């Protein structure tokens, strides 16, 4: 509750002493100016201002910004929509800072924007959603934190998939391979914590669990990440889910590689941050690809279409493009502008007007200004918001339609396996049909079926170029092994005999025992102890007696300890110990 109140008051504490110039992009072209467009009093103004909040120099920002500008130009040049009205995009760089992002949002509110797009940061989105609620301005957000809810923030609308679904997709992948214990590695921020919390719930429904939450601070040093990985490597679970920022996530795998954690027996699953990085890179050097061989990753699924192909062919010629390729956030950015444009068109047709009024709550009880009085309430913001959530059209990313909880409908992900110089698709996940090797678009035309028998993925090549599925756990490093007596025989050596291998013994009986151990759903560390001198067959009667004698010795030791406890007026139930 304290954190909630603190966020709600943040915009009242930030005053005008740190205003930063705004970049204004759009109008009738791509020119940049420092003056915002004036608003008309007519029902269809000549220009309306749209705000955008992104970190420009980031994996998401470098794909989103050119797409936003391209969409603005396409809308403004299309005479069939917003007849006579142009969109003016005001782009603000949040610089990956919660403080700067919040100040940026307040600045945008001075410019009489009718909607704001972004931010990509869930932390910033939590704070500025209070501002948008107060001023009744729709926030078309790219923040994926599952706790960002339209129930709490009545002007919040997410135009990318909610991470809630991504975490359930990961839980289905874990369940598909039969693993029961998972370690989560994540950034300790709003997006990381809340996403992993949902993952824990999703795994519990599959009778699996998060055995450890390995969190590190957003600004963690190299040594801190190193220490974190060393600690999780001492645990039994070998299934790691990595939910981090796409701009810094590769450092995890660099450290893991150095620690010998990218070899056979390990399982690494990442959220969409890794494909977002790979898809938006001109080329990934071999050293980087070597770090992530065998990783399984989720990527937002966007249906193939002629629209998408045409956009891809235009990409290199768009303004502000820094790379020859883009990730899924470019498609969502483009669709978000068109969502707003189509909603505005209906809004104007229904008599909606762009007018603003003063908010008396931005002044203190004595009537003196708090330097925030230039921010005004969008009078019909609720009407525009209701129009937005009722939209239904096909964009570059697929069908744009919102469900009852204001999430994009039909969330789906590609399941990728990183290998060689790129990745291959081993299947798909959708909340409609679960895991499948058939694209979600085909399955949408059939009755939903998420039964276990219908869940399928293509074969995965795991770390260490292993084709055999890892069991997902190892013997604990600090556990006391089970000591197993093995007769050191002279005859019938095909059943059991001494060997120079790691276990020290070999034979048919050993193979059967090891196969049984492998079938257990938990670790059983064990060592073989040779019994006899190898010159003659040992007596099985003596072997059994010595085992019993060893157990009796342990029992006497326990009784001695119990006597010591009793002498000090302590109680200990030997049977239950």
From TrEMBL:
The keyword Transmembrane helix applies. Keywords: Membrane, Signal, Transmembrane, Transmembrane helix. Pfam families: ANF_receptor. GO terms for cellular component: membrane. Residues 1-26 form the signal peptide. Residues 65-420 form the Receptor ligand binding region domain. InterPro entries: ANF_lig-bd_rcpt, GABAb_receptor_plant_PBP1, Ionotropic_Glu_rcpt, Peripla_BP_I. Its main location: membrane. It is found in: Membrane. This is Receptor ligand binding region domain-containing protein. It comes from Solanum stoloniferum.
């Amino acid at each position: 509750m304290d954190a909630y109140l603190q966020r709600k008051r943040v915009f009242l504490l930030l005053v005008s002493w740190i205003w930063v110039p705004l970049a204004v992009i759009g109008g009738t072209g791509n020119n940049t100016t420092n003056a915002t467009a004036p608003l008309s009093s007519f029902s269809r103004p000549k220009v309306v201002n749209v705000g955008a909040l992104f970190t420009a120099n980031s994996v998401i920002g470098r794909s989103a910004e050119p797409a936003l500008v391209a969409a603005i130009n396409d809308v403004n040049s299309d005479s069939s929509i917003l007849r006579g009205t142009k969109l003016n995009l005001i782009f603000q760089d949040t610089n990956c800072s919660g403080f700067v992002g919040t100040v940026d949002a307040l600045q945008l509110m001075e410019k009489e924007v009718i909607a704001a797009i972004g931010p990509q940061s869930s932390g910033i989105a939590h704070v500025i959603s209070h501002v948008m609620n107060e001023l009744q301005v729709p926030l078309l957000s790219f923040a994926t934190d599952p706790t960002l809810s339209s129930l709490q923030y009545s002007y919040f609308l997410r135009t990318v998939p909610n991470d809630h679904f991504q975490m359930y997709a990961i839980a289905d992948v874990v369940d598909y391979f039969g693993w029961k214990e998972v370690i989560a590695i994540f950034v300790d921020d709003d997006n990381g914590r809340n996403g992993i919390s949902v993952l824990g719930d999703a795994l519990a429904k599959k009778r699996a669990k998060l055995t450890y939450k390995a969190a590190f601070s957003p600004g963690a040093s190299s040594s801190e990440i190193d220490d974190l990985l060393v600690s999780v490597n001492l645990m039994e679970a070998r299934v790691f889910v990595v939910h981090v920022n796409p701009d810094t996530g590769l450092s995890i795998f660099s450290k893991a590689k150095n620690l010998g954690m990218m070899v056979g027996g390990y399982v690494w699953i990442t959220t969409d941050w890794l494909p977002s990085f790979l898809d938006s890179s001109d080329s990934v050097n071999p050293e980087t690809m070597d770090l992530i061989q065998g990783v399984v990753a989720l990527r937002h699924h966007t249906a193939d279409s002629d629209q998408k192909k045409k956009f891809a062919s235009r990409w290199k010629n768009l303004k502000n493009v820094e790379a020859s390729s883009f990730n899924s956030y470019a498609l969502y950015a483009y669709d978000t502008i068109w969502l707003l444009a189509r909603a505005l068109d209906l809004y104007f047709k229904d008599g909606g007007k762009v007018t603003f009024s003063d908010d008396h709550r931005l002044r203190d009880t004595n009537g003196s200004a708090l330097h925030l009085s230039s921010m005004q309430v969008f009078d019909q913001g609720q009407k525009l918001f209701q129009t937005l959530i009722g939209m239904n059209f096909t964009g570059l990313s697929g069908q744009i339609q919102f469900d009852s909880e204001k999430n994009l409908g039909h969330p789906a992900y590609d399941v990728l396996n990183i290998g060689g110089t790129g990745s291959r698709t081993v299947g798909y996940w959708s909340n409609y049909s679960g895991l499948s090797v058939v694209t979600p678009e085909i399955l949408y035309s059939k009755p939903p079926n998420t039964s276990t028998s219908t869940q399928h993925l293509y074969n995965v090549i795991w770390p260490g170029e292993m084709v055999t599925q890892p069991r997902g756990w190892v013997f604990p490093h600090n556990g006391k092994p089970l000591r197993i007596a093995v007769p050191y025989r002279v005859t019938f050596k095909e059943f059991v005999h001494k060997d120079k291998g790691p276990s020290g013994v070999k034979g048919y009986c050993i193979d059967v025992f090891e196969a049984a151990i492998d079938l257990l759903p938990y670790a059983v560390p064990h060592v073989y102890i040779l019994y006899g001198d190898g010159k003659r067959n040992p007596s099985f009667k003596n072997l059994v007696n010595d085992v019993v004698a060893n157990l009796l010795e342990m029992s006497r030791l326990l009784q001695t300890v119990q006597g010591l406890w009793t002498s000090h007026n302590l109680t200990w139930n030997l049977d239950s110990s």
